[in-house]
Amino acid sequence: MVIYIPWKNDEWDAQDYINNLSFVATLATKVTEWLDPQPDDHILDLGCGANGQGTVHGIDTSRSMVNAAWDLARRYCLVPGGTFVFEMGGQGNIAEARALMLSAVARKIKAAPDALLETWFFPDEAWIRDMLEVKVGGFKVERSEMEWRPTKIDGEGGLYGWVKLVGGQLFGLIKSEARREEAIQEVVKLLEIVCRRELENEGGEVGYVMNYVRLRVIARKL
């Protein structure tokens, strides 16, 4: 039996994202440099949030996220010679948190962890190249890289806010609000152990560092 995690249009709230995951956009400057947007460019931003010049069109599954970024969002088709540049979680991304969330939720709903069909997907470079150049076709990958990037969780909600937002859809499988909160707290407490770091560049202050893995790709439309 496979348990499907429902995809809700407004699962992520824009303000919660700003409070707890704003570092995602802040740390995405490298892929923006790869894009090198120019004043006359038209940019389709999948997953919303972009910097630089040009015309940007934001598309996201969450209406709240879209409205927070743009008053109006519309599609713009990628033409031959156009550039597809993106950054996403790569293989191994937030592995410790992912394992703990799957385990906690599976036990609460009395299911096997491998029966939960996750909304997360973290591929490697080979998978992306095969998908763009062979299975989907019509693209040529010009550059790609995977980077292990330990990232301090420093949003207003701290580690709890990060866990609740990132794992929101997974925790949503637990129908009881009380049991859902128990699962979130369980994951937070364990992450406080495995992700605890003394941050030397911050005077030895204790913080929580998640093992992010970033996959960046630039592909040309043929």
Automatic annotation (TrEMBL):
The name on file for this protein is Methyltransferase domain-containing protein
The protein's organism comes out as Apiosordaria backusii
Which InterPro entries does the record associate with it?
SAM-dependent_MTases_sf
